[in-house]
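Reproducibility note. Readers wishing to regenerate the assembly model reported in the main text can use the exact inputs given here. Chain order matters: entities are listed in the order in which they were concatenated for prediction.
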Amino acid sequence: MLRTMEPFDPHDHPHAHPDERRLATVEPGLHAGHARAHADVWLSDVSAGYGDKLALESINLAVEAGTLLAVVGPNGAGKSTLLKLLAGLIRPWTGRVEVLGHPAGQQARRVAYVPQAELVDWAFPVTVEDVVMMGRYSALGRLRRPGTADRRAVKEALARVSMADHAGTQIGSLSGGQRRRVFLARALAAEPDLFLLDEPVTGVDATTQEDLMDLLEAEARRGKTVIATTHDLACAAQRFQRVAAINRTLIAHGPSSLVLDPEVLARTYGGHLLVLGGQAVVLDDAHHHDEAAGGEPHFHEGGAQDHGSALPPRRRSP
Amino acid sequence: MDLLLGPLEHAFFVRALLAAAIVGTVCAVVGTYVVLRGLAFIGDAISHAAFPGVVIGFLLKIPFLLGAGVAAVGTALAIGFVSRRTRLRTDTTIGVLFAGTFALGVFLFSTIQGYVADLFSFLFGYLLSTSAEDLLALAILGGLVLTTVAALWKELLYATFDPLGAAASGLRVDWLESLFLGLVALTIVISLQAVGIILVVAMLVTPAATAQLLAVRFGRMMAIAVAVGIGSAVAGLYLSFWLDAASGATIVLVMTALFLAAFALGPRTGLLARRRSVPA
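Running the prediction on these inputs yields the following structure tokens for the assembly.
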């Protein structure tokens, strides 16, 4: 089965003229300096990559506080690289990255980053509770052990993701959806101002996706900024306020209804996108995650471990 | 009873027992991280790299621990440096440096006249000839390693489990990584005396691997590893004494037997557990 978006009819679109559509994807009426002052995340002419391989080029992007932003694009488009730049995990080759008013990485305690599920060693001897407690570590500081307040925060975070009953479970015995819930709980327990989530809803069932998006929406309403990469264009269209479409460069950035139109998607996904009878269909394999940086461990498990995934395997043809 | 208490009348046996227990503890604690990070091969490399340090130390008449320590830490850092500078995979770099440094040790060793008798003890340990000074150095350095791990407990756990998440939350993961390799090098150097260059990797890896078969929590895994480490060190030493066999090898054999037992009987991976779950 293929992932589909809402049926699309260009004549219904509020900005039917192609040129108008393209204009609408540019930040309207915001002076660069103004955008920077009001932004939680601000990138100016940023290029970045791994080794000698360029992954992102000339990215200009300002994300205001309280935004729920989806980063979409094909595999290898640089979505994960963008998140790593914002998390301060890699440095830009050129340009500037500012997060919460400081160079990326300096406000680490106010940022929660959740890696792709493939980068986690699920055989690791930690329980659900242990993982969520890690969200509290940076605020604790050196030499201090978690206290009552930390245990309470962990409990609350687990309750919010409906995983309170699994606190003592080893993470490897969880379903795919439960694993994503636990890592979101870890981010919530850190009480950050900025959430950076790499594929938070990939490989999860519909219920989990709705639950996780409800939580992220609530955080955004409280003024927190949420930036999540996703392969799921339907989810991006329905649940995110804004979308940044990238494929090495920033193709478009703006309200999700304007960015997710066939023209922008065609430019983002190239040959991997098909528009059939008013439906935009992405022909990518979400489980083939972006190419990892050198030296990054990957943990693949044999057997059918992802009980939480309700999506059947995707094929290239309908 | 005499069988257990008899050997304790010899001071050398008591010293060996204490040394074995310290080494068993320190190796199990550090080994827990080594196993979870998949660094077993690095441990093997560092131990072999200590060999030229030992020989050079002998030639220059400096303490054994110093020579071995410098060589081990130097190689650990060199592995990281070469891997970062080239497109080679880390295991390739380790393979090259590990064989190269060990060859240097053998080469230097072969040029020394009248030193051949001690080769066996360097390669396979000389627990029963532990001196009081050796024991003191072991206790101090072992205590240093354990204190460092205790102080950085949660940081090391986070960085081992999820290096990206840990770095993003502000932990200095690169710094922790170097410090950890330093701890591995130090642990190996102080363990050389017990089991020697060839078998030291077993002291690091086997108790932790056994524990991972049995535990689902990190603290529990480390506790089991320590129990296996101390238990097999003590039992192995007694066995070797009774059987008049090489002590290091006997300790490693006991550990391996415990690992196989855990594999066969363990709650999740064990053959029995699997058989039990099938007919249901």
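We highlight two features of this model. Residues 173-214 of chain B form the longest helix (42 residues). Chain B touches chain A at residues 36, 38, 83, 87, 90, 151-152, 154-155, 157-158, 160-162, 164-171, 212, 215-218, 220-221 (CB under 8 Å).
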